[in-house]
Design brief:
Rossmann fold, five-stranded parallel sheet, seven-stranded mixed sheet, single chain, about 425 residues, globular
């Protein structure tokens, strides 16, 4: 018997065990960095998922949003959601091994993950092989939904959708202020996230007739970014567009400040820039930074459940929800809804329910129009927003009809 046959046999046994188990609890695996680089992101995610599970199971006061009224999964006889966390250590190969362990040993019906797109790429290869769903809560690389996978589902936007929102904002703010973006500086780490992001930004800048003043790829987690900061200063593009995780996001802001350079505008591809650690680590240097986002924390009129969910999260973690934790919370609530709609933990029933999803935006805490997947497992209704830091808090500034405050726009002044 060859290795592939053995793996398929193991997968069949794991699926059979899950299908045979009485639905008293539904086991869901979550792969995140819980130690090492990115650990704080993983620990914040853990709080978001545990809050979601408690709301589903009735271990927290009910909230009027999707699956948050308690009682478990009513179409599975009130079955409770059980979470099993695995530590990826932000290592794609460790993530791959942990995903396989969750499936074969913990008997998970689905896996959610995983912060970085590099870990998502390996996890989703495992879930595809074992034929269970991977819910991409917070992975934004466009290429993840371009691999022909049948068990990959991403409720949130990807970087092509996010980048389109950035360039739509540039067009709209130019029309409003008379100060157009004429050039951008691309700054991105050398992972699938950074290179995919920059590729989309490069193409959309060309389509918009905007010059690329600088195109700088750097090694992630570098000890110094002073050389890159000098290059950005020399290029002096109208907008700096960074695609970086937290430590690098803080480092580049400090490096630019040390040489007396302040970009006219910073439009981040979220990631590390959206993390509370960036806001505290960069301090006053973070003021005025803009970012694309899945989450509009101040869109209370549009999504009345936001304050209650945020308050419940903050009570557990002493910080507000952000772009990442809101997507993580939403991913589990949505997955629980799909399992409930399937009325089964059988893998093919769950896959069918996920494919048939048509969740209205009003039932979410996100500003999205809803959740509905295309043939690649990408939600086509997850419309992004643009937010800006002011007073240490993110405020929605675009679309203008959703904005809580006006954007501070220094381009062209």
């Amino acid at each position: 018997m060859n290795r592939r046959t053995l793996m398929l046999s193991a997968g069949a046994l794991a699926l059979s065990a899950r299908a045979a188990r009485a639905a008293e609890e539904v086991v869901i695996g979550l792969v995140y960095p819980l130690t090492g680089n990115g650990a704080q992101v993983g620990l914040d995610a853990k709080v978001a998922y545990e809050l979601a599970a408690d709301l589903i199971n009735g271990a927290a006061p009910p909230i009027d949003t999707l699956m948050a009224k308690g009682g478990g999964l009513d179409r599975l006889g009130g079955a409770k959601v059980k979470l099993v966390f695995a530590d990826s250590q932000n290592d794609p190969q460790k993530a791959r091994a942990e995903a396989e362990r969750l499936i074969t040993q913990e008997k998970t019906v689905a896996i959610i993950g995983s912060y970085t797109s590099a870990t998502a790429a390996t996890i989703s290869q495992v879930t595809e092989r074992y034929e269970i769903p991977y819910i991409s809560a917070d992975n934004s690389s466009p290429s993840l939904t371009q691999r022909g996978l049948k068990w990959f589902f991403r409720p949130g936007p990807h970087d092509e959708m996010f980048t389109k929102a950035m360039f739509d904002f540039y067009k709209d703010i130019a029309a409003k202020t008379g100060r157009p973006v004429k050039s951008v500086s691309l700054f991105y780490e050398n992972s699938i996230f950074g290179t995919d992001s920059a590729g989309v930004q490069r193409r959309m800048a060309q389509e918009a007739g905007i010059a690329v003043a600088a195109d700088i790829k750097y090694v992630a987690n570098s000890p110094s970014l002073s050389t890159e900061a000098q290059k950005l200063k020399s290029a002096n593009g109208d907008v700096l567009m960074p695609s970086s995780y937290t430590s690098d996001a803080i480092l580049i802001m400090r490096a630019m400040n040390e040489i007396g350079y302040r970009p006219k505008a910073v439009m981040a591809q979220a990631a590390g820039f959206q993390e509370p650690a960036f806001v505290s680590g960069a301090g006053a240097l973070a003021e005025g930074v803009m970012s694309r986002s899945s989450f509009a924390p101040d869109a209370v009129k549009l999504r009345p459940a936001i304050p209650a969910v945020n308050a419940a999260y903050k009570a557990r973690n002493n910080k507000d929800m952000n772009d990442n934790t809101s997507r993580q919370f939403t991913a589990l609530m949505f997955l629980a809804d799909a399992i409930n709609r399937a009325g089964s933990i059988k893998n093919t029933a769950l896959q069918a329910a996920l494919k048939a999803s048509d969740v209205p935006g009003a039932s979410l805490i996100m500003p999205w129009k809803g959740i509905k997947f295309d043939e690649n497992g990408q939600n086509t209704l997850s419309n992004p927003v643009i937010v800006q830091l002011g007073g240490g808090t993110w405020h929605t500034v675009w679309p203008f009809d959703l904005a809580a405050t006006e954007a501070v726009w220094n381009v062209g002044t």
